[in-house]
Specification:
Elements (H helix, E strand, L loop, with lengths): L13 H4 L11 H54 L5 H17 L4 E4 L5 E6 L4 E4 L46 H5 L4 H16 L11 H30 L10 H5 L7 E2 L5 E3 L28
Antiparallel strand pairs: 1-2, 2-3, 4-5
Helix pairs in contact: 2-3
């Protein structure tokens, strides 16, 4: 037997037939109001009890800290009376240090919401309020370059993919765009592997799939790279065999090219040698340092 009471509408209008509050007793809503008032009153009492308990703990800690400080001062006073020659400055410094240590030993006060999650924390040492927000010290990306032709900034994702200062030296940039991170590390390797898989799928090779079989795709990619490198080496070897020029590819040592060595040499302010060996002057094919007829220097025509 149906227990619903269906009241037929006297008016057959469209809104009257679809009135979702038709037949609702408004006096029942007072029960909902009373329920929420009781919940709010219970929450208020609980919050007041927590604050009282917190104030009681603070008072107890403060009293304990004061007693500990008085005890230490009494002990140091007894020591000073026993040894009056001791330095009083060190005692005062130690008093201040012990007081600061007591203050640092306190735990910071935390403000929690209804579910117990910390939304605000106060550090007792710095006396400042620290909120769990993102770091705001860094300059915003859209303020790095105020030119209208600068890189595009997406406010929804807070991303700037392009470099806002492409004209500057890359070594002097503090921020080179989000694409700089994407183009560094192993990102390029994964990108090449993905493009290789796409190319193989376009050619009809279904064995290479980066998501289904990543190890197999990596092996195929490595074998393809070896094959291409072998082709390049064969082409290079064939060109050298045909036209020659192998001797020009053999460069001297890097130390000779840049005129650098591991020999440590130290000079004074006047340019005289202090430590190490003087770099040798390269000899020519002509006879040098031979003074004929009792000459003490090179003698003869400049030409």
């Amino acid at each position: 037997v149906e227990d619903e009471i269906v009241k037929h509408h006297e008016t057959g209008s469209f809104d009257a037939k679809r009135d979702r509050w038709k037949g609702y007793d408004t006096s029942k809503y007072k029960d909902i109001i009373n329920f929420h008032q009781k919940v709010e009153e219970a929450r208020r009492k609980k919050k007041a009890k927590e604050l009282d308990e917190q104030m009681r703990r603070k008072a107890a800690k403060k009293k304990e800290r004061l007693l500990r400080r008085q005890k230490k001062r009494a002990q140091k006073k007894a020591k000073r009376e026993a040894n009056p020659d001791a330095d009083s400055d060190s005692d005062s410094d130690s008093d201040s240090d012990s007081d600061s240590d007591d203050e640092e030993g306190e735990s910071g006060d935390e403000l929690k919401d209804d579910v117990g999650e910390v939304i605000q924390k106060r550090d007792a040492r710095t006396r400042t309020t620290v909120r769990n927000l993102r770091i705001r010290e860094d300059t915003a990306k859209y303020l790095l370059n105020l030119s209208t032709k600068s890189a595009h900034y997406d406010p929804k994702t807070r991303s700037m993919r392009a470099n806002p200062h492409p004209e500057k030296d890359p070594s002097e940039l503090t921020y080179a765009g989000d694409n700089f991170v994407r183009m560094s590390g192993d990102a390029q390797k994964i990108k090449k592997l993905q493009l290789f898989a796409f190319a193989k799928n376009d050619d009809g090779d279904s064995d290479v799939h980066l998501q289904a079989a990543p190890s197999q795709a990596e092996l195929h990619f490595q074998s393809e790279q070896k094959r291409r490198m072998q082709q390049v080496n064969n082409l290079r070897r064939s060109v050298l065999d045909k036209y020659g020029g192998v001797k020009h590819l053999k460069a001297p040592a890097k130390e000779l090219l840049l005129n650098q060595s591991e020999n440590y040499v130290e000079y004074d302010e006047d340019g005289h040698l202090i430590k190490g060996k003087e770099p040798a002057i390269p000899k020519s094919k002509y006879i040098e340092d031979v003074y004929d007829n009792n000459h003490t220097a090179v003698w003869g025509s400049y030409w």
